[in-house]
Amino acid sequence: MLDKVLEGWRLKNGVPRHGIFLADRTPSKSFKHTFLLLNECPPLGLVAKYPCFIYTFFMGKTYVFVNQKGGVGKTTSALNIGAYIADEGKKVLLVDFDAQANLSSGVGANPPKPGIYELLSGIATIEQAVKKTAVPRLDVIPASIDLSGAAVELIEQQDRNLFLKKTLAPVKDNYDFILIDCPPSLGILTLNGMAAADAVLIPMQCEYFAMEGLSLLLQTIQRIQRGLNRSLGIGGIFFTMYDPRTRLAQDVVKQVSAYFKDAVFSTIIPRNVRLSEAPSHGQPILLYDPGCSGAKAYQSLAREIIARSDATEKNKNVPAQSAEISSRNGG
Ligand code: ATP
Ligand code: MG
Q1: How many angstroms separate the alpha carbon of residue 170 from the centre of ligand 1?
Q2: Residue of minimum CA distance from atom 14 in ligand 1
Q3: Domains of the chain by range and CATH?
Q4: Which residue among 79, 276, 285, 293 has the greatest number of ligand 1 atoms within 8 angstroms of its CB, and so is best to mutate?
Q5: Distance from residue 279's CA to the centre of ligand 1 (Å)
Q6: Please, where are the H alpha helices in the chain?
Q7: Residue 174: which region, alpha, beta or left (left: phi > 0; alpha: psi -120 to 50)?
Q8: CA of 304 to the centre of ligand 2 (A)
Q9: Per-residue pLDDT of the chain (331 residues; tens, 9 = 90+)
């Protein structure tokens, strides 16, 4: 009987989020035990009437790459981490939310339309905007230069900061990870990215000004946590374009790691010319040169992110971790 009632919540395409174990009485009065996989959790009122257990699993995570400073490696990190997470067997959606569209060209999304701008202006459906890439299990919603006018269009909308969250909601459960690339500002696009995400990933270059920018960014994250997205956590900080020959780079890594402790990923992304060449071939480093030092570092960072995500799923400690960072930052 419950079998029939659950028809609407049956597993369709996509990643199962819930399992339901039910014992149903058959006409011969014996019990029939069934295990169903579902995309969506049926309403508790409905299942309360029947003897059943619900299991929830495969919780997908949305990360946003944020740093208001330009050229710190947001895009390079989003696309290469995405490719390596997909290589680990996870389903990944990259979202290019920057009018520069570097992420789209970096994964060879061609043509880039319809993409995120067409979703914003209501002339495409999410199914039309999601494109496959050359990496198995890695999809992308591309951007184009048209997105540069989006800020004006968004400001006119009532829920201007929630556009991305609402847009991604129908596909969120189809992916294990959604990674959003943002422009170098803390404007409306980045606010949308943070409203849609579970956690922020902060790429940081090993230089003095980067440390100044970090405290402004953390203050902004605190503001978002107080209003727009109370469950936003800090996924972690990682260093990019590291050159071990400079004393300054070593000092920045030491100081930031001493201050932010566990929030800093142990993998450091080295400066590596192959990483800067790969986008001109429309390929993540995984396809372009998987043997180079940059590729190995991104693979290691992707594994750390998966491990951290699994751990936070178990402990649900991301908001706690971010509060800890905030308070150490004087907030
Ligand atoms: P923007 O703020 O403009 O969006 P960004 O933070 O997304 O920039 P990227 O575009 O990823 O930064 O990187 C800036 C430049 O540095 C690019 O030319 C990229 O190819 C290069 N780059 C990124 N990471 C590395 C690295 N580890 N080694 C060498 N070059 C790198
Ligand atoms: Mg970028």
Answers
A1: 31
A2: 71
A3: 2-56 (no CATH), 61-328 (3.40.50.300)
A4: 276
A5: 10
A6: 2-5, 44-48, 74-87, 102-106, 116-120, 126-129, 150-155, 163-172, 188-196, 208-226, 247-260, 273-277, 285-288, 293-315, 318-328
A7: alpha
A8: 22
A9: 666 666 656 655 445 556 667 666 666 767 667 676 665 666 666 666 666 666 665 568 999 999 999 999 999 999 999 999 999 999 999 999 999 999 999 999 988 899 999 998 899 999 999 999 999 999 999 999 999 988 788 888 888 999 999 999 989 888 999 999 999 999 999 999 999 999 999 999 998 888 888 888 999 999 999 999 988 999 999 999 999 999 999 999 999 999 899 999 999 999 999 999 999 999 999 999 999 999 999 999 999 999 998 776 554 433 333 333 333 333 3
User: Which of 75, 240, 246 gets mutated to test ligand 1 (max ligand atoms within 8 A of its CB)?
Assistant: 75
**Exposed (0-12), middle (13-18) or buried (19+): which is 253, by Cβ within 10 Å?**
middle
Angle between helices 318-328 and 208-226 (to 10 degrees): 120
Residue to substitute in 72, 74, 76 for testing ligand 1 pocket (most ligand atoms within 8 angstroms of CB): 76
Ligand 1 shell residues, CB under 6 Å: 70-76, 98, 100, 102, 183-184, 240-241, 269, 271-272, 275-276, 279, 294
Q: For residue 240, how far is its CA from the centre of ligand 1 (angstroms)?
A: 9
